[in-house]
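Throughout our pipeline, every protein is held as a single compact record rather than as scattered files. The record that follows is passed on verbatim for readers who wish to inspect the format.
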Amino acid sequence: MSIRDTIETTFHQVAKDQGRTLVALNDSLPLTQSGLDSLSFAIIVTTLEDSLGLDPFSAAEWVEFPVTFGDFVKLYESANK
Protein backbone atom coordinates (compact mmCIF):
# COMPACT_ATOMS: atom_id res chain seq x y z
CA MET A 1 0.00 0.00 0.00
CA SER A 2 1.38 3.43 -0.92
CA ILE A 3 1.82 6.24 1.60
CA ARG A 4 -1.09 8.10 -0.01
CA ASP A 5 -3.34 5.04 0.28
CA THR A 6 -2.36 4.55 3.91
CA ILE A 7 -3.10 8.21 4.68
CA GLU A 8 -6.47 8.11 2.92
CA THR A 9 -7.43 4.91 4.72
CA THR A 10 -6.38 6.43 8.04
CA PHE A 11 -8.40 9.61 7.43
CA HIS A 12 -11.50 7.54 6.68
CA GLN A 13 -11.03 5.22 9.65
CA VAL A 14 -10.43 8.05 12.13
CA ALA A 15 -13.44 9.97 10.82
CA LYS A 16 -15.58 6.86 11.29
CA ASP A 17 -14.18 6.14 14.76
CA GLN A 18 -14.68 9.75 15.87
CA GLY A 19 -18.17 10.05 14.39
CA ARG A 20 -17.07 12.78 12.00
CA THR A 21 -18.32 13.31 8.44
CA LEU A 22 -15.32 13.36 6.13
CA VAL A 23 -15.71 15.19 2.84
CA ALA A 24 -14.26 13.77 -0.38
CA LEU A 25 -10.48 13.91 -0.20
CA ASN A 26 -8.53 15.60 -2.97
CA ASP A 27 -5.19 17.37 -3.10
CA SER A 28 -6.65 20.89 -2.99
CA LEU A 29 -8.96 20.23 -0.03
CA PRO A 30 -8.07 22.54 2.89
CA LEU A 31 -7.58 20.37 5.98
CA THR A 32 -9.76 22.79 7.96
CA GLN A 33 -12.66 21.91 5.64
CA SER A 34 -12.20 18.14 5.78
CA GLY A 35 -14.75 17.60 8.55
CA LEU A 36 -12.10 16.54 11.05
CA ASP A 37 -11.16 18.32 14.27
CA SER A 38 -7.82 18.73 16.05
CA LEU A 39 -8.28 15.51 18.05
CA SER A 40 -8.87 13.62 14.81
CA PHE A 41 -5.65 15.02 13.33
CA ALA A 42 -3.71 14.08 16.47
CA ILE A 43 -5.03 10.53 16.16
CA ILE A 44 -4.15 10.47 12.45
CA VAL A 45 -0.56 11.56 13.10
CA THR A 46 -0.16 8.98 15.88
CA THR A 47 -1.71 6.23 13.77
CA LEU A 48 0.50 7.08 10.80
CA GLU A 49 3.58 7.05 13.01
CA ASP A 50 2.64 3.52 14.10
CA SER A 51 1.80 2.23 10.62
CA LEU A 52 4.44 4.06 8.54
CA GLY A 53 7.13 4.58 11.15
CA LEU A 54 7.14 8.28 10.23
CA ASP A 55 6.45 11.44 12.20
CA PRO A 56 7.50 14.32 9.96
CA PHE A 57 6.34 16.82 12.58
CA SER A 58 9.07 15.79 15.01
CA ALA A 59 11.63 14.37 12.58
CA ALA A 60 12.69 17.69 11.07
CA GLU A 61 14.00 20.82 12.70
CA TRP A 62 11.27 22.93 11.13
CA VAL A 63 8.14 21.81 9.36
CA GLU A 64 5.58 24.03 7.71
CA PHE A 65 2.20 22.70 8.77
CA PRO A 66 0.32 21.40 5.72
CA VAL A 67 -2.69 23.44 4.63
CA THR A 68 -4.26 21.05 2.13
CA PHE A 69 -4.68 17.30 1.97
CA GLY A 70 -2.14 17.23 -0.87
CA ASP A 71 0.36 19.12 1.32
CA PHE A 72 -0.23 16.56 4.10
CA VAL A 73 0.48 13.66 1.75
CA LYS A 74 3.59 15.35 0.32
CA LEU A 75 4.92 15.94 3.83
CA TYR A 76 4.76 12.22 4.59
CA GLU A 77 6.11 11.23 1.18
CA SER A 78 9.06 13.62 1.65
CA ALA A 79 9.75 12.28 5.15
CA ASN A 80 9.98 8.79 3.69
CA LYS A 81 12.96 9.67 1.46
About this structure: The longest helix spans residues 3-18. The radius of gyration is 12 Å. The chain has a mean pLDDT of 93. Residues 3-79 form a domain with the Non-ribosomal Peptide Synthetase Peptidyl Carrier Protein; Chain A fold (CATH 1.10.1200).
